[in-house]
Design brief:
- This protein has about 120 residues and is of the alpha+beta class.
- It folds into two domains: about 40 residues; about 60 residues, no CATH class.
- It is built from two helices and eleven strands.
- It has a five-stranded antiparallel beta sheet.
């Protein structure tokens, strides 16, 4: 994971830990999180899974067997990938493996942050 892949507001985890951290600042080799600067190399991306989709506000649609939020439909049967409608004539598919990738794509397309929903 490189600093240019991250944005303030992304979630990452400490290497060897299951604790997620919210990125509050980014420099070339450092991430600011929880009132401290830590080396970027001490973090790793969080694998995207169904638990994270629910945390981020996606709802499971039993009929279509997809997780959905706004324009996004995410299928987790074979692989986690993001499927959403661009317009009435076509779809776009993108492989998404990590939480921060989904957050960044969601923000780029909607202008809104994708954050944990309590």
């Amino acid at each position: 994971m490189k600093a240019n892949e991250l944005r303030v507001g992304n979630y990452v985890k400490g290497i060897g830990h299951n604790i997620s951290w919210l990125v509050e600042g980014i420099e070339t080799d450092y991430i600011h999180s929880s009132n401290a600067w830590r080396l970027l190399s001490s973090f790793e991306p969080i694998p995207l899974n169904t638990n994270w989709l629910l945390k981020l506000g996606f709802k499971y649609n039993n009929y279509e067997e997809l997780y959905q939020k706004d324009i996004f439909d995410i299928d987790t049967i074979d692989n986690v990938y993001c499927h959403f409608y661009m317009n009435e004539y076509g779809d776009w598919y993108k492989n998404i493996e990590h939480v921060h990738q989904l957050q960044n794509l969601y923000f780029a397309l909607t202008g809104e942050e994708l954050t944990i929903v309590c």
